[in-house]
Design a protein that fits this description.
The chain is of the alpha+beta class. The protein has a domain at 3-60 and 128-200 and 293-363: FAD/NAD(P)-binding domain (3-Layer(bba) Sandwich), CATH 3.50.50. It is 32% helix and 27% strand. It is built from 12 helices and 23 strands. The chain has helices spanning 33-43, 70-77, 81-86, 127-140, 189-193, 259-267, 308-311, 320-342, 351-376, 378-390, 392-402, 413-421, and strands spanning 3-6, 12-15, 23-29, 49-52, 66-67, 90-92, 94-98, 104-108, 122-124, 144-146, 149-157, 160-168, 171-182, 205-213, 221-226, 231-238, 241-249, 281-282, 287-289, 294-295, 300-301, 304-306, 312-313. Strands 3, 4, 10, 11, 12, 13, 21 and 22 form an 8-stranded mixed beta sheet that branches. Strands 7, 8, 14, 15, 16, 17, 18 and 19 form an 8-stranded mixed beta sheet that branches. Strands 5-9-6 form a 3-stranded antiparallel beta sheet. β21 (300-301) and β22 form a beta hairpin. α8 packs antiparallel against α9 (351-376). The longest helix has 26 residues, at 351-376. The chain is globular. The termini are far apart. The relative contact order is 0.16.
């Protein structure tokens, strides 16, 4: 049973009788996929972990609700893959990209890289089904969950983060911990308090997302319709429900207009999509989020690190958000567990996590930035789709990187040039 007590400054301090010392090993701010995965991985090692969230339960999120194939291994590791499948997750074999000129490219995932025996497909799953599963598994792993905790500041001592301040169920509260993890999303309080918030220099987009029935759609792929500096995504999240997302420049969006009308009217202007939406009916309020793109100026400070969208987010074109959230949680556990489980009682060294994040995830960030650049230049997007439709080997290679089946580092300019120049041998040609 959770209780509150007053500290010397008159603030209330969350105290769980299970931990009489009152100092946690890890405080995780934010119970989304990144926070829940980190809490799961750390608590299962016997650490005292508390997971904070401003909501009583995982709230609805503005999300394309797509998980790349690279997510499956991590979900399997934390025990979430089978429950997510049981909750109605739909396998997606790849993507179909439709251009403004009427070209289409169907690209599927292949068995590149090590999948640990898992299938090479993406997953469509509603967040209101997935997020409670991740939270429940974190609690079962041993993490304590403190809902209705609104973090407002970090607790510092000698330039070291030693905890979190905020309000718990409306009352002032302070928590102390050896490590604080900011997994509190795009508007991260933790990121702001360590001076890490930084906007993207040229991407300034807004997303509108809604659920609709009656959409004429593909059942086994996600579909992307390209326009001029905007795009629409169709994701078949259930047998009769489609996640419809519009991503456009913020300057092109009238914030006073009805979001539902804007979503359907704008998506209806994309070539090949208007007829598909003729029988569509929105069944829930359309949600808006933006500006989307940002990256933290720093991922760590003494005693604190950032995960998931708090560390950075680019755009939902490739669905990289959830995989980055899950993988950053794995990296955080990998680089802090040795000190937390066997080191001195002080905070763990977090610099290694930041270096690993940049080493592994920056390449995917560059790939996604290049794709966003192509969207801004329709002639370039048309050429890329034309090229990839003529070179299915390149399309498969690109999808392997987009789907996190191979490290994005392998998609380097020299490697691509070699593939572009390679001549495929005619059938029957011997390897020698």
């Amino acid at each position: 049973m959770e209780s509150l007590r007053s500290n010397s400054s008159g603030q209330s301090e969350i105290r769980n009788p299970k931990f009489e010392m009152g100092i946690w090993d890890v405080i995780v701010v934010g119970a989304g996929p990144a926070g829940c995965a980190a809490a799961n991985l750390l608590a299962r090692e016997g650490l005292r972990v508390i997971l904070l969230d401003k909501s009583a339960a995982p709230p609805a999120k503005v999300c394309g609700e797509y998980l790349s194939p690279g997510c499956l291994r991590i979900l399997n590791r934390i025990g979430a893959l089978q429950p997510i499948r049981d909750a109605g997750a739909r396998p997606l074999s790849g993507m179909v990209i439709h251009t403004a000129a009427g070209r289409s490219l169907r690209a599927t995932y292949s068995r590149h890289g090590s999948l640990d025996g898992l299938p090479a497909h993406g997953v469509a799953i509603r967040r209101d089904r997935m997020d409670p599963i991740l939270l429940d598994l974190a609690i079962k792993a041993g993490a304590e969950f403190a809902p209705n905790f609104q973090a407002s500041d970090l607790l510092w001592h000698d330039d070291q983060v030693v905890g979190v301040r905020g309000r718990h169920r409306g009352e002032p509260a302070t928590l102390r911990g050896r490590l604080t993890i900011g997994a509190d999303g795009r508007h991260s309080v933790v990121a702001r308090r360590i001076g890490a918030v930084r906007r993207h220099p040229w991407l300034d987009k807004v997303a509108l997302v809604g659920y609709a029935t009656g959409v004429a759609r593909a059942e086994d792929v996600g579909e992307i319709f390209l326009g001029r500096e905007r795009y629409c995504i169709l994701n078949p999240v259930t047998p009769d429900l489609t996640n419809i997302g519009l991503v456009t420049n913020r300057r092109d969006l009238d914030l006073r207009a009805d979001p539902a009308g804007t979503l359907m009217e704008t998506c209806g202007t994309f070539r090949g999509l208007g007829d598909r939406l003729a029988g569509a009916r929105l069944i829930a309020p359309v949600r808006r989020l933006g500006p989307l793109a940002h990256q933290a100026a720093r991922l760590t400070a003494p005693g604190v690190l950032l995960l998931g969208d708090a560390a950075g987010f680019l755009d939902p074109f490739t669905g990289e958000g959830i995989r980055a959230a899950l993988r950053s949680a794995e990296l955080a556990a990998e680089y802090t567990l040795p000190a937390l489980t066997s080191g001195p009682a002080g905070p763990p060294e977090v610099h290694g996590y930041g270096a690993a994040w940049h080493r592994e995830l920056r390449a995917k960030w560059r790939l996604c930035t290049a794709l966003q650049y192509a969207i801004r230049h329709p002639a370039l997007a048309e050429w890329l789709v034309w090229l990839l439709s003529r070179r299915p080997d390149l399309a498969t290679f690109l999808m392997a990187a987009i789907g996190d089946l191979i490290p994005a580092q392998e998609l380097n300019p020299l490697g691509l040039l070699a593939r572009l120049l390679a001549q495929r041998k005619p059938p029957g040609t011997s390897p020698g």
